[in-house]
Amino acid sequence: MTFKIIVPLLFLLTVPVEPQRRSTVGKFNEVFAWKQLTYDINGIMVLQDRFAGDDLAGGDREKRATDRVYFNYNNEEDKNWGDRPIWNDSPTESPSASTVDPNDEIGRFFIQYNNVPMGAEKVGNRLFVTIPRRRYGIPATLNYIDLSRPSGRSPPLTPYPDMQSSRSIISVYRTRADECGRLWMVDTGTIEIPNNPRYLQTPAIVVYDLETDRQILRYTLKSSDLPANNTPTGLASITVIIKNGDCSDAYAYIADVVSYGVIVFSLKAGDSWRHSHNYFHFNPTAGNLRVAGQSFIWNDGVFSVAVGPAEADGCRMLYFHPMVSSQEFTVSSCALERRETNQTAFQVTGDRGTNSQSTMHGLHGPSKVLFFAEVGRDAVSCWHVDRPLAPGNMALLAQDRQRLSYPSDLHVIDDEVWVMANTLPRFIYSRLDPNQYNFFIYRAKVSDLIEGTVCAGPYDAASFYPGSYYKNA
């Protein structure tokens, strides 16, 4: 007699699903985490490598071919820019970063491994995620996640404002929104292939109206703003100030980490100029880093500009630091609004302590607390700006070698702090493990973060401790 084993069909069709566990780091709650990024493009899920995006972007095949989109000069000025000699001394690139030669990947629409997110900014119900083109195979450099729709731990990204329009932007590191409902960014115009960067068009400030999702400004930076051929690769952040509530009177401050300057743009004047100062340079004693298991030497200069509250004269205190440094500096926004640099307007604020190298930082106005994304410690820290800046007046709020490895962006919105970590040094110098979570986005309430720490409450001179370590919560 023959026996048959009947297996329920439901069992055969069931695929094991990984639990959607959300982690916490300190008082930060995980919002999203990815092993590798995926995309939702016009309702089509892009989940794995693909050579072409012909069925995704719309329009005829001639216009959709990625090599024509990425390597087409729009005007004579951009063509001349692309013909400039190339400098290959970027400290953040290495030909050994991958076993695959990036130059062999030209023309590929989506190479999943190459998509490393750099910036994250929450604006309303959208979370904008930027992926600078440091390799080929990145469908869109500017993307978003609709926070009003249910999503899992690792949601797909949607190109902003749509796939076809997003092709006009080459590469963006980080965005910043203003109170007038506009999203600002710098398009570097560059694909940063190691030892063979492609300068496709002149860097430009790009602004979108978030109400209509239309581009309302593209301001091409002047040659005087870009002193070196590799300057575009260093335009990593932008900060925006609105003067006296007048949306037409806005100033943007662009940090140049490669050639050590700050570019100022006036919306009302429709013009830009550049400031130079010794405080924009890196500190050579802080250049040795060990992050994500990788040891390396960087020389990144001024990286982030944080804005203080408006004063009676309409000026604001600007806090800034080079990434390769432990010091913080200040200058009045009104001093940078002038085209001639007043060297005495720049002040040394203090020193955060050893291994406190930081990418982005942001100020929460009501509490007067400045938050730092520390790459040197894989951490987020804080400092109350009414206190002297010293290690003893700072608090370590969260720290984790894996889940906060290279916090690449930090953004204070309303009463929350949002942080992205992306394990970038491992991508550059070694290999990411696509079977592990590599990219994280966290958020926490300011009040929860600073409660019980040295960052909370008014400054009491009697409690100042000029020590060499951080006071933890």
From TrEMBL:
It is found in: Secreted. Its main location: secreted. Keywords: Secreted, Signal. Belongs to the major royal jelly protein family. GO terms for cellular component: extracellular region. It comes from Chrysodeixis includens. Residues 1-19 form the signal peptide. Gene3D superfamilies: TolB, C-terminal domain. This is Uncharacterized protein. Residues 82-101 are annotated as: Disordered. InterPro entries: 6-blade_b-propeller_TolB-like, MRJP/yellow-related.
